[in-house]
Amino acid sequence: MQRRTLLISMASASAVAACGDAIDQAAMDGAPVEVTVLDESLTALKTGFNAAPGDIRLLFIVGPSCGPCLRGLMELNEALDADLLSNQRLKVFVVHVPTLGAEQHHALRAAQLLTGSSVTHYWDPSGTSGDVVQQTLQIPEYAWDVWLTYPPGPAWEDVAPPAPATWSHQLGGLRAGTRLDPEAFAADVRARVEQLA
2-196 sits in which CATH class? Predict the structure, then answer.
């Protein structure tokens, strides 16, 4: 919680504006993407996650005004490709959190960077998702710019989600997990989905 508060308080108007420009340059010509607003219990997210126990599930926690997060969304959109992002055996849950001064309108724009019929976007105004994922990953930092992969099976029954099969991040000094490599991440996801076919 303190980490998130620090990140929010350190944000500058110029950084947010620069990120907004980056989003605008990413061809925002598509139809608006629905973004579900989460309550502090993350009810809609947990319900969606638990409704797909037989599928591969991806959980992304991103800051929608954060340049590296936006780049991660764009690169994964390309690496996973339109066919995989619309595969019925894949469910992608993208949670936008209020780091770096982000607000809901940032999430609405950022949601257009990763799309497909298997993708659901959420706005978490309380930032609770980053707190509970931090618990799951047992990392010293607030969990944002993290990218988790789940095999079929685990249910989200507690406050925090279950441990993922693999996870990546783009956090500066974090030694746990692996640095996000969109191509390698996508190859792993594709292989997991193909195993279910």
Answer: alpha beta
- pLDDT per residue over 68-91, tens digit each? 999 999 999 999 999 999 999 999
Which tens digit of pLDDT belongs to each residue from 136-157? 999 998 999 999 999 999 999 9
Q: How far apart (Å, rounded) are the C-alpha atoms in residues 55 and 32? A: 26
Pairing of strands 35-37, 119-123: parallel
Q: Where are the domains of the chain?
A: 2-196
39 C-beta neighbours (distance < 10 Å), count = 12
- 43-69 average pLDDT score: 96
Which strands sit side by side in the sheet containing 178-179, from one edge to the other?
35-37, 119-123, 90-96, 56-62, 146-150, 166-169, 178-179
**CA Rg value for the chain:** 15
pTM equals 0.86
Neighbour count for residue 24 (Cβ, 10 Å): 10
Cα gap 16→21, rounded to integer Å: 9
pLDDT of residue 9: 38
Rounded to whole angstroms, how far apart are CA atoms 105 and 86?
25
